Amino acid sequence: MGTKCLIIAAGQGSRLQQRGDSKPLISILGIPLIERVIRSAMEAGVDEFYVVIGWQSGLVRDFLEQLAKRLAIRITPLVNEDWEKENGLSVLKARDVLQEPFLLLMADHLFDPELVRALTTHPLPDGEVALVVDSDIHNPLVDIDDVTRVSVKNGKICDIGKGVTDFNGFDTGIFLCSSAIFKALDQSREKDGDTTLSGAIRVLAEDGRAEAISSSSGFWIDVDDPAAFKRAEKALLDRLRDKPADGPVSRYLNRPLSVIFSRHLAKVDITPNQISLFSFLCSLLAAGLFALGGYFALLLGGVLAQFASIIDGCDGEVARLKYQSSDFGGWFDAVLDRYADAFLLFGLTWHLLAVKGNGWVLFTGFMAIIGSFMLSYTADKYDNLMRERIKAGIGTKLRMGRDVRVFLIFLGAATNMVFPVLVVIAVVMNVETLRRVMVALNGQD
Amino acid sequence: MGTKCLIIAAGQGSRLQQRGDSKPLISILGIPLIERVIRSAMEAGVDEFYVVIGWQSGLVRDFLEQLAKRLAIRITPLVNEDWEKENGLSVLKARDVLQEPFLLLMADHLFDPELVRALTTHPLPDGEVALVVDSDIHNPLVDIDDVTRVSVKNGKICDIGKGVTDFNGFDTGIFLCSSAIFKALDQSREKDGDTTLSGAIRVLAEDGRAEAISSSSGFWIDVDDPAAFKRAEKALLDRLRDKPADGPVSRYLNRPLSVIFSRHLAKVDITPNQISLFSFLCSLLAAGLFALGGYFALLLGGVLAQFASIIDGCDGEVARLKYQSSDFGGWFDAVLDRYADAFLLFGLTWHLLAVKGNGWVLFTGFMAIIGSFMLSYTADKYDNLMRERIKAGIGTKLRMGRDVRVFLIFLGAATNMVFPVLVVIAVVMNVETLRRVMVALNGQD
B-chain residues within 8 Å CB-CB of A441? Predict the structure, then answer.
């Protein structure tokens, strides 16, 4: 790739003062704004950064130094003493170090890496600038009174500024610039005394040298004031709920609740693996309560099992929010889930044996355990190869995943109807496994 | 690749008459010789074949036609009416169709694809011929009185023939030829009236145009007479035992026995999946015998379980012998094995509960089942990624695979010491799973 990236992080962000001294270092869901911007750019393929700092430059510089080490990337700070003046002056600080086309981002604009990726593969004609323009003028994440508006015609920017009335898009703050941007800043200053970035774009737009890359989807948000901060937090959390692999219970019950927990968990120093372990211990405790006997312990165990299932969503969510996803984490979580499932079902079986200990109870409990296991095993074994084949046969709506399994356990415990639930799990899990074998067999060459 | 391949399959093979009318069609472990040669060449990257046929040419032609369809390759038969004469005449039949360097193989020489692969990547100078020479002059698969001997010096063949006394290698029958071979055959005929392939090689050797590609490892065998046929069968079976992933019980008990079964199974019309299913049904029956109660049923169940574990090796062996390996087959076998393990352990638990039904028995049985499952699950989940990491921590000798598990079950049943065996399985399997989690955790970046 090799695209370099300039990030403007010089401002004070006085409207967010209550959240921290330096705006780029304000944490949103556990990660500072500037780190989120850098991480997103990295996901789009950038690994060399220039950051213009100003207000509290010592603090920001120290943070960037540590971040560069932690992520093994190059970050060069450029100081702008005139950080109180307009943002074009910050861009000019990069004049001597950036010649080839470079990305230009704002430290307070969060965005989906997809939006940047569209730019890095874009061929930029010499002397031009390209801006990602949000053409969804009803975007609920945008503060219409504060956003920089853009008027686009035939892929070119005609006008740009907060006061533009005849607009059809918004400035996302994501630019691809040639060095023409520096000259345009000079011209704008000489002509109108305007040293804003928008001013320079206007100069380029007059000659048809400001391209608009329109996008109507793709998340972005300008984190400018407390209201925007809340919107951004909510948007980041909402994105966690968009997991196509989620089963019905996950989608409509567990995920909405786990996201609420994750919002708080992200802000403290807890790792995803610790969350996995905590959820597992809750399940173990629930299994113990089942085995204890009596309806009260059964009910309590059921509630605890369902709680553990909800918390079990948080490990992945926090990992995604804090860029801590790892292969080990996914594997560890899966291993603990299998143990948890087995213990829960064994607890229920034990409970039933104490009430009416006959062979059918034992056999049903055994079949429920093995069926649950097989369902995970058949999906995971030969991951890439077989999963596709098996998926082809599964309706996306009808998933008997862990979310459904634990919810059934909860229902059985709460209604004191443990045996029917064991029977249902035993039958459904094993029949589904058999069906998978059939699908895989038929898909055989 | 694009290398074409000429196979000489014209002879009668009178010394193997008792095994079939046409030598190339004689089956060895369920697959005709000519098919084995073609399959091995395919594994080395060849997909276009010319086969010189003679004796029983109608039969051979029909077989090749079906084989070409079945394997989706091109096979062109070339008829040699003078098949009773020397083998050089068969080679000459290809004069008009093969110009670029081509592989030359014998229909009755079985070989490891590696030996051919060494040739297909070999740059052959114009006007030369290369022969793979076996430099292991003590090779037990070679019949020293019948083999074509070769004298090699500095990578060139000096002399070749059955009567050569000063030799340091054997002719494997695997050649890479330029069209110079046809001219050399003419010259050999004119000069000495010799129309053998060896005669032509001698002509080329005189000018230093016969290269020797030496190999001291790599399986090959000339299946010429009943003794050689038996040696070949044994060698093919021995190769099945060379599986580095085998656990100790597999290596020293199961595999030597399953190979004996496979020898017979390969010759009948039974698929590997049918073998998997049969082994599974034996395990189910064994589990039922365990649950029945009483020492005699227990003993019988134990023996049957161990028998099933031995037979469980045959599916993969027959698949390898008959080129029937498939991803589905491996997956299906693994799924059945998990069910079989769970049922066997559940049968033992049931047996014990009838004798002395207390909670510890039930709990131990449960832990043995979940531990066995987890051991397979942790190995298979994230196959490629995690397996490497986990393997790094496992001593190659100390494997607690399925072979050991079932053998312990057999021992427990035979000695009527079921509870200790359940305890051992429960402890070892779960501790090993925990250890794997630790290894994976430490290997984390």
Answer: 328, 332
pLDDT digits (tens, 9 = 90+) for B112-162: 999 998 888 888 888 999 999 999 999 999 998 889 999 999 999 999 999
A chain contacts of residue B334, beta-carbon cutoff 8 Å: 377, 381
Please name the helix (run of DSSP H) or strand (run of DSSP E) that holds residue A161, with its range, or none: strand A156-161
What is the domain-level CATH number for residue B340?
Answer: 1.20.120.1760
Q: Tell me the average pLDDT across B283-298.
A: 95
Same domain membership, residue B223 and residue B155 = yes
Please tell me whether residues B211 and B340 are part of one structural domain: no
Between these two residues, B387 and A54, which has the higher pLDDT value? A54
Q: Which amino acid is at A281?
A: L
Contact criterion met (CB < 8 Å) for A377 and B376: yes
Final residue of a structural domain among A230, A265, A299: A230
Smallest Cβ distance to B346: which of A366, A374, A381? Answer: A366
Total count of domains within chain A: 2
Q: Under an 8 Å CB criterion, which residues of A touch B?
A: 326-328, 330-332, 334-335, 338-339, 342, 346, 350, 353, 359, 362, 366, 369-370, 373-374, 376-378, 380-383, 385-386, 433, 437, 440-441, 443-445
- Do A319 and A193 lie in one domain? The reply is no
* CA–CA gap between residue B120 and residue B101 (Å, rounded): 9
Question: What local confidence, expressed as pLDDT, does residue A393 receive?
Answer: 53
Which of residues B229, B259, B288 is at a domain's end? B229
A12 & A121 share domain = yes
Residues B180 and B36 in one domain: yes
Instruction: Mark out chain B residues that contact chain A at CB-CB < 8 A.
Output: 326-328, 330-332, 334-335, 338-339, 342, 346, 350, 353, 359, 362, 366, 369-370, 373-374, 376-378, 380-383, 385-386, 433, 437, 440-441, 443-445
> Are the Cβ atoms of B377 and A433 closer than 8 angstroms?
no
Sign of CA dihedral A395, A396, A398, A400: positive
Contacts of A280 in chain B (CB under 8 A): none
What is the pLDDT confidence band of residue B392, given thresholds at 50, 70 and 90?
Answer: low
What backbone phi and psi angles, to 5 degrees, belong to A135? Answer: -90, 5
Whichever domain contains A56, its CATH number is: 3.90.550.10
Q: Give residue-wise pLDDT tens across range B235-260.
A: 999 988 888 778 889 999 999 999 99
- Average pLDDT rounded to a whole number, residues B26-37: 95
Shared domain check, B372 and B338? yes
Per-residue model confidence as pLDDT tens digits over B304-327: 999 999 999 999 999 999 999 888
Within a domain: residue B234?
no
Q: In which domain, by residue range, is A429 found? A: 243-442
pLDDT tens-digit readout, B329-357: 888 898 999 999 999 999 999 999 888 77
A chain contacts of residue B332, beta-carbon cutoff 8 Å: 437, 440-441
- A214 forms beta bridges with A133
Structure tokens at A23: 């705006």
∠ CA B390-B392-B398, rounded to 5°: 85
Calpha distance B157→B201 (Å, rounded): 8
Same domain for B147 and B9 = yes
Residue B437 three-state SS: helix
State the SS3 of A255-271. HHHHHHHHHHHCCCCCC
* CA–CA separation, B56 and B343 (whole Å): 54
Residue B235 lies in a domain: no
The two tokens of residue B73 are: 């390759």
In a domain, A250, yes or no: yes
Q: How far is A422 from chain B (nearest CA, A)?
A: 16
Integer-rounded Cα Rg, in Å, for chain B is: 27
Does the pTM surpass 0.90? The reply is no
Is A30 inside any structural domain?
A: yes
Please state the ipTM of this predicted complex.
Answer: 0.81
A163 and A105 in a common domain: yes
